[in-house]
């Protein structure tokens, strides 16, 4: 509020100097609207219009390109309900959330606390910052590049892992990415490897703002490390935990590149995810309307999940305030 | 309770390593576990390095863990030539750099109106931008693809640049608007008293002060765009326009790709990202922190 009044006074004083006074009764913010114009136009063209057009496409049967659009109403959505692959893809999204949110956040929380509060004190800052950088390394390379590397490591014939296993005397090592039973767990392990550094970095930054005296006080009261971790660390960095949960959950629901380079959704759809399924429908099966319907459902799921997480966050914040 | 105990603890405030902690064997055990986790994370990189410079014969004879007896560079050369790597490198640099600059510019303009201009309905605008950042790109891609075709931008890097400028600035607007919301009003007032227009205030008062934040934002935009996969995969269809991740992934199905070529390709592809990271590491960790707290 203070800002807007200052802008008002600023306007008035400028009007005194300049011969041309601004029109009376116009609020100050109107003058700033032109600055929003490029963003608004770009946003409408690149996001608003395509998003609506995609929903429109989802109401048709369309093979893409010059082919005619045939009205299908909600037919594509009705087909989705009876489509096993559709349900498989969203089932696999749950696995992606486990691999990209639950496991990395849990491990990341523990690692960050150990690095910050245990190793950092006993072996110095350097040790903990070198370890942190190591954990973060997979995060800086393009995820497609990481996927190509892992695709080779896990290759059944020439891959490094199976070469090593054969060297250890295992004659028929598993076909990690080629067997429906092992493909999804393998993909999940790769995703955990990629993801784990992100929460570590965020949580370690968060721990810097926790008052060290809290820990010291608890220590003097005889609380062990695990007790302090649960009673101080976890509650103190709850805001960051929500941020990590939100961003990683959205990323897990959107995951595409790792699936594309690791398994292409196979074998037998065992690693199919919604984004890859819609990509397949668009550009491989030429079922544009159907692909658009999958993408629309995915959008809705993401928005609903995001709203739920944000709701939980504000409820937790409210409770905390009331608690104090 | 917390106050009382913290007062009691105030006398023992420490800096650096406390001698109290220099005892016991338990700490070595914890360190060993933490280092082990680090080694597990590093292992794929190590295997890649070993096999990027190892000949295919030696790979099949001695396996992936042996040290190469001599440095074999044919894999690097094969990848370099097959993908025309300099072209891909330039494409990635060009697209990411232009997006970083344009995205930061667009974010600044939006944030100026929202954070300093305090336009009406700004909360809704910011929410809209945040939602846009969460959208799956699949929900935009087919219309964008047909739009690019109809305006003659199919297989053009400018289509990718325009799209990512908007997507990245959605996040940038959110971040910058909340930073500019706390901009010192005295500075704006003083500038307005001197008769500066909004345009001049933006460039001569706001921009210089926001420069550090903008540079963090540009580094983010650069890396994010560099790492993007889905939209470049769909929009860039020929060899001369593609980016590094797409080039590497499209070689994957190739039967002629042997272990050294794949590993050399991975190595060459991640070198720019690692170099960039090392150069900007300090700015970046500060940025990650800022992003988390916001």
From TrEMBL, chain B:
Entry's transmembrane regions: 28-50, 89-111, 123-145, 157-180, 201-226, 261-280
Mode of membrane association: Multi-pass membrane protein
Residues in ABC transmembrane type-1 domain copies: 89-280
Record's keyword terms, sorted: Cell membrane, Membrane, Transmembrane, Transmembrane helix, Transport
Compartments it resides in: Cell membrane
Entries under InterPro entries matching the protein: MetI-like, MetI-like_sf
Matches recorded under PANTHER family: ABC TRANSPORTER PERMEASE PROTEIN MG189-RELATED, ABC TRANSPORTER PERMEASE PROTEIN MG189-RELATED-RELATED
Family of the protein in this entry: Belongs to the binding-protein-dependent transport system permease family.
Protein name: Carbohydrate ABC transporter permease
Species of origin: Myceligenerans salitolerans
Lineage: Bacteria, Bacillati, Actinomycetota, Actinomycetes, Micrococcales
